[in-house]
Amino acid sequence: MKVLFLVFAILATLANATKVDYTGHKVIRVVPKTEVQLSFLLKLQEQAYDFWSSPSTLGAPVDIRISPSRYQFLVNLLNSVSLSHTIRFSDIGKQIEDEERAIILRRAMHSGRAFDFENYHTYPEIEAYVNELATTSALVSSSVIGTTYEGRGIIMATISTGSSATKPVMYFECAMHAREWAAPATCLFMMNELTTKYGTDAEITALLDYADWLITPVSNPDGYDYTWTTDRLWRKNRSPNGGLCYGTDPNRNFDAGFGGPGASANGCSDTFHGPYAFSTEEASAMRDLIIANKGRVVAAVSIHTYSQLWMSPYGSQSTLPADYTEMYRVMGISVNALTATYGTVFQYGNIADTIYLASGGSIDWTYDAEGVLYSYALELRDTGLYGFELPPRLILPTATETFNGLKAMAKEIAAKLP
């Protein structure tokens, strides 16, 4: 009875909250089959449509969210270049409501218990968890690596058995894009695995003895908080653009082909690159952290959702990096370990050819500017069945398989760079 009362109380609170209403919004899928169609979609993306997957190559599906009032207009545009479509989701609003109910029910069932790694959490809850972990585990220290436009600290956990000036560092950046909730959930799971199994699990013990693991569970706190309070599908940060639109995409804001293909100069676009490289607090915080550990960082991993991909530089160009053979070798080993967990299939390769051109990305910068050979970007589950609203019941398998892939990566790095 107490649980039911708590559920109804939270539901009533959510019903009264002022949030963007996605009732009737659809996600449609198109598949460009000609260069004309692909070029059309790339131009359309510049017009502030919400692309859930971006145009990349011929034959690759592209998902676009559209409101009921603009649906027929978009269909007419697509028809002008003979692009047919299928409907992936007929009502995103209902999907978001289902997600909220699942979160609330699990919270009610786990009320008063320890931190729940199989549910989604607000940024204040994540901050509290990281700070508590720093007080209860001798392996963990917490720090703030930057302050956002709205004044939130970008919290980071350092998991270490004892650092030194030469000990390798592996850095994991999660949720640079706000709406990708499965990313921070996965990174929190990793933190728990590392801290609770050190000393009993031989593999984890060896990996922590080899390197310090630095994790920012939410790299874009303003945007992430906004997805909880106002707009579940917000992607960018929350800095003003000088007009009617807000937000810069921090993962288009690094000094790596800045302003090139796959990034927009339109402040209303979800891929707006900002006025200049490192204009965002989020990108500059990561830059400063990597530079502060210059010479020690052996891996820099950017964790996103969705599409089931494991990718290396470059995003800004199709030219392969000089070290691509080694990058590709380790990607293959990592993906094999991930797939061996539950059979989840990942594609892997360089960003530009695997997903799309994306200039100004973090891993292009860590590789080119700081020489971090093992710079990777991951897109976790799924391939569009749930999209950004991955149900809480799928957090644990997603996090488990991802961590298995990352452990395999770390083992290869330790063997290559002892």
Query: What is the string of SSEs from the N terminus onward?
Result: HEHEEHEHHEEEHHEHHEEHEHHEH
Oligomer: single chain
What is the rounded Rg? 21 Å
Number of helices: 13
- Tally the beta strands: 12
Largest sheet: 8 strands, mixed
Q: What this model shows, in words?
A:
There is one protein chain. The protein is α/β, with parallel strands linked by helices and 418 residues long. Helices cover 41% and strands 16% of the residues. It has 13 helices and twelve strands. The protein has helices at residues 2-16, 35-45, 68-79, 92-109, 123-136, 182-197, 202-210, 221-229, 281-292, 324-342, 351-354, 362-370, 395-416; strands at 26-30, 50-51, 62-66, 85-89, 140-147, 153-159, 169-174, 212-216, 297-305, 309-312, 347-350, 374-380. Strands 5-6-8-7-9-12-10-11 form an eight-stranded mixed beta sheet, with helices on both faces. Strand 10 (309-312), helix 10 (324-342) and strand 11 (347-350) form a beta-alpha-beta unit. Helix 1 packs antiparallel against helix 4 and helix 10 runs antiparallel to helix 13. The protein is globular, with a radius of gyration of 21 Å. The N and C termini lie far apart (57 Å). The relative contact order is 0.13. The model is unreliable at 1-16 (pLDDT under 50).
Fold topology:
Blueprint: H1 2-16, E1 26-30, H2 35-45, E2 50-51, E3 62-66, H3 68-79, E4 85-89, H4 92-109, H5 123-136, E5 140-147, E6 153-159, E7 169-174, H6 182-197, H7 202-210, E8 212-216, H8 221-229, H9 281-292, E9 297-305, E10 309-312, H10 324-342, E11 347-350, H11 351-354, H12 362-370, E12 374-380, H13 395-416
Parallel strand pairs: 7-8, 7-9, 9-12, 10-11
Antiparallel strand pairs: 1-3, 1-4, 2-3, 5-6, 6-8, 10-12
